[in-house]
Design goal:
Number of domains: 1
Shape: flat
Structural class: mainly alpha
Order of helices and strands: EHEHHH
Helix content: 40-55%
Number of helices: 4
Radius of gyration: 14 Å
Strand order of the largest sheet: 1-2
Number of strands: 2
Length: 72
Amino acid sequence: MILNRRNVPREEEKTAELASDVASKVIGALNFSPVVQQAEERRQTVLEAFPDSPMAEEYRELARRVLAACGA
């Protein structure tokens, strides 16, 4: 599972509980960022629109974690 933070109360706790309920685990979390909406407005990904942004690095790190979880 991936936590897409939206700045709501207890979101990390709720996500961990859900992962446990479905015999899964949280492999990453993405912080809320207005950069995501700005990229969407440009009809681009964050990596295309803002490749040097902290949010782009969060996506890169998430990709590394997903690949590691898949054994790649």
